[in-house]
Amino acid sequence: MVRMKILWSCCAATAGLCSTSLAAGQGDEVVVIYNSQLPESKELAFYYAQRREVPTNQVLGFDLPTAEAITRAEFRDQLQKPLLKALERQRLIRTQPEIIPATRDRTGDAFQKVIDARIRYATVCYGVPVKILNDPNLSEPGAEKLRVELRRNDAALDSELAALPLLLRNLPLTSPARNPVYGVTNAARIHPTNGVLVVARLDGPSVEIARGLVDKAIEAETNGLWGRAYFDQRGLTNGNYKLGDDWIRGAAEMVRRLGFETVVDDKPDTFSAAFPMSQIAFYAGWYDGQFSGPFTVSKVEFMPGAVAYHLHSFSAHVLRTPDQYWVGPLLAKGATATIGYVEEPYLEGTINVAAFFADFTALGFNFGEAAYAAQPSISWQTTVVGDPLYRPFGRKNPADHFGKRLQELHGELLARKSKLIEWSHLQVVNLNLAQGYSVSDMIGYLEQEPTTRKSAVLQEKLGDIFYSRGKLADAIDAYGKALKLEMTPQQRIRVMLGQAELLALYTKRQQALDKYQEFLKEFTNYPALLSLYQKMLPLAQDLNQTTEVVRIEKEIERLSPHPEK
Q1: Distance of CA 131 to CAs 71, 368, 452, 551, Å?
Q2: Amino acid 142: pLDDT
Q3: Can you list the alpha helix ranges (DSSP code H) found in 361-400?
Q4: 3-state secondary structure of 349
Q5: How many other β-carbons are positioned within 10 Å of the β-carbon of residue 269?
Q6: Span of 121-135, 240-254, 385-399, 488-502 with lowest mean pLDDT
Q7: Cα angle at 83 between 78 and 86, to 5 degrees?
Q8: What is the model's pLDDT at position 333?
């Protein structure tokens, strides 16, 4: 009991943040939009409404093109205007005229202002177009004063719908619009009366994938969002693009402080295909044009509820594809929520991913709120894909600090005898370490905790801690125990290679060589075989295993790139 008291007081000290957001998004605050031309779009809309308890009269179908792109005229006449009429007819929003009197320097104007709204969210379903094409014939006063690259009126359909309250105020369509709720820390302010409707979509390469987004979101809300976090910077120290690195670095630090096992790569290249990215809860990186590295393997280990984001100008240029750009492939591989860009937004028009992660985790915003609080611009290129109500960190009372919410969930998992308790114990250890508690105490905690004996996750952590203290023999032993337990393929790759490297460091050359050979038999399609053989060669040479040396040298020759003659 004393141990638990220490542990949870540490959690509270780490978070120390209170959320002023609303209770977890309620279905009666949502309007669901589908394409009446596609039966599967309608089926998805009503499925979502049933799962989130959205009133059926707030599920609205519109006769829309079935392609991903829509013209400005089609958007205006077939979606924007009919949607507004439906919302007003059902009194989901109320508007009133407002007049700005003319002055000596400015002509007057008349527009509609949203004065009340019963909805805060719009969930757009698979089949509704994703982007609005640029209309070169649209001419607006003052456009000539904008930067040349911003003299466009193309947009993500969802971002344009999010600006619906501002469009009623005659918002210009050329270039991005300032997001009036960017940076808010009170989620209640993200509201149509303040200029923004939270719009996200259930979409992806198939309607089945789109349907799974709400299922996995609810699963994570029930059991917690667990796993590891991976952040891929570019190592930039100056220049215009440094901002992107700063955002990702800030996101990584936030997640690490909240107790997630966190890996940060600050090299120019993105994670390689050989990188063992296991049990993914969070991913953020940049700047490959096409999905790459660990996301190209046949099974990517996304945990239920995983949030994945790759910063690239055209990450959602085509969304309903499993093998182009980023958003579609991430969804196809199992991510629950992501954000992308349908056309070039320029870096300053992308989300502040550090703010997004802070809002989503520590402040307990739902996915939609966090996405819009982190966007500097709307009526631009961002598409938010996932259930906007998804809220794994809000728990029962969003006003409770993060540590209290963790403690509640820990108790629930214990009561249910859930295997997921291993992740909660891991988070406890990381929270204590982040607060400066002694490594010895955490070793003691893990060694005394019965769950550790049957958890590859906790045995690996114990090995990592021993290694950080220079206790190689203990680390090797802990990794060996982990390898005898159930684990995912990518975790097994990481632990096997880690143990082999430690054995080599500990001058256990034969054991290290045996471990590499065992690895090669088990993972025949490992993408970095060359580097593996290069590590094996000096071991075989030191052991005077001539036959093995010759075999390894032949493999190195075969796998090495050869310049063209």
Answers
A1: 9, 19, 49, 55
A2: 85
A3: 367-373
A4: helix
A5: 12
A6: 385-399
A7: 125
A8: 98
- Side-chain half-sphere exposure of 387, counting CA atoms within 13 A: 34
Crossing angle (nearest 10°) for helices 489-505 and 509-522: 160
CA distance 342 to 562: 39
Q: Determine contact, residues 369/187, Cβ cutoff 8 Å.
A: yes
What does the pLDDT average to over 366-387? 97
Distance, in Å, from the CA atom of 151 to the CA atom of 212, rounded to the nearest integer, reads: 38
Handedness of CA 50, 53, 54, 57 (dihedral sign): positive
Instruction: Show Cβ contacts of residue 76 under 8 Å, excluding neighbours closer than 6 positions.
Output: none
DSSP character at residue 145: G
**Residue written as token pair 């992501």:** 338
Q: What is the mean pLDDT of residues 467-485?
A: 96
Is the CB of residue 166 less than 8 Å from the CB of residue 379?
yes
Alpha-carbon Rg of the chain, whole angstroms?
Answer: 26
Q: In Å, how far are 159, 175, 341 from 74, measured between CA atoms?
A: 16, 19, 21
| Token pair of 113 as six digits | 């202002």
Residue 16 has pLDDT above 50, yes or no: no
Q: Can you give the pLDDT at residue 13?
A: 36
